[in-house]
Amino acid sequence: MGWDEGAVYYSDQPQFPEAGDAATISPHAVLTKFKEFIRNFEIEQNCFPYREALLDNPKRLVVHLEDLLSFDSDLPSLIRSAPADYLPVFEKAAGEVLTGLKMREANEGGVMEEPLTRDVQILLTSREDPVSMRLLGAQYISKLVKISGISIAASRVKAKATYVFLVCKNCKKTREVPCRPGLGGAIVPRSCDNIPQPGEEPCPLDPWMVVPDRSQYVDQQTLKLQENPEDVPTGELPRNMLLSVDRHLVQTIVPGTRLTVMGIYSIFQASNSHKGAVAIRQPYIRVVGLEDTNEASSRGPANFTPDEEEEFKKFADSQDVYKNICTKIAPSIFGHEDVKRAAACLLFGGSRKSLPDGVKLRGDINVLLLGDPSTAKSQFLKFVEKTAPIAVYTSGKGSSAAGLTASVIRDSSTREFYLEGGAMVLADGGVVCIDEFDKMRPEDRVAIHEAMEQQTISIAKAGITTVLNSRTSVLAAANPPSGRYDDLKTAQDNIDLQTTILSRFDLIFIVKDIRKYSQDKEIASHIIRVHASANKFSDENTDSKEDNWLKRYIQYCRARCHPRLSKDAAENLQRKYVTIRMDMKRRAHETGEAAPIPITVRQLEAIVRLSESLAKMRLSHEATPDDVDKAFKLFDTSTMDAARSGINQQINITGEMANEIKQAETQIKRRMGIGARLSERRLIEDLARMGMNDSMVRRALLIMHQRGEVEYQRERRSIVRKA
Predict the structure, then answer these.
(1) Domain annotation covers residue 353
(2) pLDDT for 145-185, tens place per residue?
(3) Are residues 77 and 49 both part of a single domain?
(4) Are 282 and 153 within one domain?
(5) Model's pTM, two decimal places?
(6) DSSP letter string over 210-265?
């Protein structure tokens, strides 16, 4: 009996179990699976989304990884682990399916021909959570990743070769070499494989020449993605990531857009790296799927759970929604009920409208807080920055026009210019809080005029002409020129801002520090109570939960509700607006001077926006006359109050006062010759030394200004005598 006698034993286990299933699946099998998925995946009976999407748009196909997983559990893991290998197979499968779905076409000779196989770009999307940019490390290289951020720069479109056409210098033999996708180049062979004939000179080393005209190209663009401001840890600089987009994704993104990106984490050799650092490579992401986070969802597609939605709807149906929301706004600040109401309206915002002729009307509400120091103005700004889904906080003195709008920067490696968005662009769909608004230079303040009304920023610098979106609300805080609000001055002297910028604010609050015994006692006890109980809430669980709830509710209302005025509310508003205009006209006629805050059509639109935001708090799709009344009341206590503030011209002037004013006028004329320029402060100080009352000198200057005898210059700092 031999040693090999007997039955045959076999095992069905794979030879190399460590390699996993990926090693055993052939590319042809994967191609067949992808084709089956595009052809046969159905959501419901006889509804094939991918087949129909491919026929609708044969250039690209958006594939959800969740659909792929439900069809075949192996395919997503293959794409995630080796996207660079399997995505071209997927694109080839899509091209072949498209060819199979199309009818045969007649050529010029009338003969029926099979349609040509076209390139289809596969774009991936998934509902998974994005990875933080800070966590991307070496373990993610060549893997599929998902990140989110704000695009801050976009380069010009370049042509990237997919196949390089080569010609041998010696024997004129040709060949095509494929290029690596993304920022990789082509590997050109060192030698020609032509076998020389007898007597023929052999091809030298490096004989290949590139023929650019016969190579194949696709469009490519590089973007710079920055972390979302709300994801950056305190005190750290935001991180940037280079993105490479190609084919149908180029020129779809402008700086300032919030993105969620699916891509392959890749590496490339930077041109400006050190000579010795051969093994060091720069990371970048080759984009294979883009989601534009639009304004409505204002921070990615916000997924609300059914329980949350139920809770929000229940809250919206309850009584006094407006009152309840106002109590949640800055609870640590005592009083200032009207400012809290305005902050609530600003956070919810009105409805943005697009007219048939392409004009867009803003729905965002702008608020200005003007007044004494220590009246919690900056605390309001900080609270709004923390509560708004998207917010940028900046101080007036440290902000330039370019920092607020957009700056043009030259790239160090390519030497070409690109745009970087500023605060107003980065806060697109949110709130910009500007503290110390009065300390800004006038030329920088002018830069935000367009952003506040048209909600765009136009740039024409260094050969770049473009328009960026800045659909933001502006909450600004300012002090009067003298530091405190002076009741002896007119409103124009106290509000030392130009009419052009004032008319862009929907609500203007004058916050005064009134000295009243009972009120001071209440404020003191409230502040002491806040300080005394501060340690008890050191864990901050309850507070942050409350803030987070309000943030989520604001997000939900902004995404789901876009109210409009009802017919009754519109008529009510029309009557009130006409009454205000008549009232202001009468006052101007009586006092002989124009109101410091003009009441124009912008203010009418402001009341419309306030009414819509009040309806939005209740998740109502229609603003009622009651909303208009509340909005009007808020407008009356803020902007109208500011317009009426300051010294009243109609104070009964006694004979003695009139005499003093006349004396002051005589002294001013003596001190200033015709055409002379003098500082207003210096003039008042000089006359005060002569024993004259400050307020009487100011009144005399005002009367002379109305008569046209003196003229204010340099933002009312200096006076010029005219006649």
Answers:
(1) no
(2) 888 888 877 777 888 888 888 888 878 788 888 887 777 77
(3) yes
(4) yes
(5) 0.62
(6) E-GGGSEEEEEEEEEEE--GGGSPTT-PPPEEEEEEEGGGTT---TT-EEEEEEEE
